[in-house]
Write a structure and sequence with these properties.
Arginase, Chain A; single chain; 302 residues; alpha/beta; two-stranded antiparallel sheet; eight-stranded parallel β-sheet
Length: 302
């Protein structure tokens, strides 16, 4: 766990992985974490606004050393930015706010790590990254299609996130096992790349290699935690039976990070009160794993 690194009087910083200030300089860091406690368009279980804080709190108990990668990932430099204040008056305005907040980090070449909050926060991040990386594609990991054009009066609802992203750049979806008839018709009409999980799809109908080949050189990875099996991750806003296991998810993320340049990612839809505290730790470890995969081979900065 992240204690005892600093030469300052004993204290535990409140940031991701409890990294002391001298090891989390925002100018020198490789990773910029942006917490977004927002869930204004949630349509089932509210409380995902508490997700970022729960993930950061749990991350303070992570071991610095990653056994798989054989290194202390935090040494690339991880900075935790202040929380983004929610704009509760307009989901579209909130997407713009996220874009404005993350754009400076993106233009500095930082690996963006967005912590949600509901999945709609991804739209602003993708827009900012697309402007810097015209060849951007998005790997969208979610139990749901999120391809509605409008839901409950908003085109920026969490149920429309993938649709808004598709309008900006190529989209590859993995883990989908629940969608509407409208969404299925849209997938078939537009020829979207959707790799289903469960609900009649054959277990071997697609491979990790298929997913990687579908992605461009620069990739943003958007992770709704309900892509995981609810036996591992019950603490989500909209749970769905079935889903990916821990090793399968890590295998996919590892391959994507090694074969493509991952320029940012998000972890969304943690609803801490809907499950045990272990769910926040799973989310925190997942974020740390992606940071490690995406910066593999890079020299330490601290």
């Amino acid at each position: 766990m992240s204690l005892g690194r600093s030469t300052l009087p004993p204290s535990i910083p409140w940031n991701f992985a409890a990294i002391p200030p001298e090891e989390s300089n925002p100018e020198e860091c490789r990773v910029a974490i942006v917490p977004v406690p927002y869930d204004s368009t949630t349509s089932y279980r509210g409380g995902t606004r508490e997700g970022p804080r729960a993930i950061i709190e749990a991350s303070r108990q992570l071991e610095d050393y990653d056994m798989e990668l054989g290194r202390e990932v935090y040494r690339v430099g991880i900075y935790t930015a202040p929380e983004v204040e929610p704009h509760v008056g307009s989901p579209e305005a909130m997407a713009q706010r996220v874009r404005d907040v993350v754009e400076p980090w993106v233009r500095k070449g930082k690996l963006l790590a967005l912590l949600g909050g509901e999945h709609s926060i991804s739209v602003g991040a993708v827009e900012a990254l697309r402007d810097v990386h015209p060849d951007l594609s998005v790997l969208y990991l979610d139990a749901h299609g999120d391809l509605r054009d409008e839901y409950m009066g908003s085109r920026f609802s969490h149920a429309c996130t993938a649709r808004r992203i598709w309008e900006m750049c190529p989209l590859v979806q993995v883990g989908v096992r629940s969608l509407s008839q409208e969404e299925m018709a849209f997938i078939q009409q537009e020829g979207l790349r959707v790799y289903f999980k469960g609900e009649g799809s054959a277990p071997s109908s697609w491979s990790v290699e298929d997913v990687v080949r579908s992605l461009s050189g620069k990739v943003y990875v958007s992770i709704d935690l309900d892509v995981l099996d609810p036996s591992l991750m019950p603490a989500v806003g909209t749970p769905e039976p079935g889903g990916m296991g821990w090793e399968a998810l890590l295998g996919l993320l590892r391959a994507v990070c090694r074969e493509r340049s991952v320029v940012g990612f998000d972890i969304t839809e943690l609803c801490p009160t809907a499950g045990p505290p272990s769910c926040a730790f799973v989310a925190a470890k997942l974020a740390y794993k992606v940071m490690g995969y995406a910066t593999e081979g890079e020299p330490p900065r601290v």
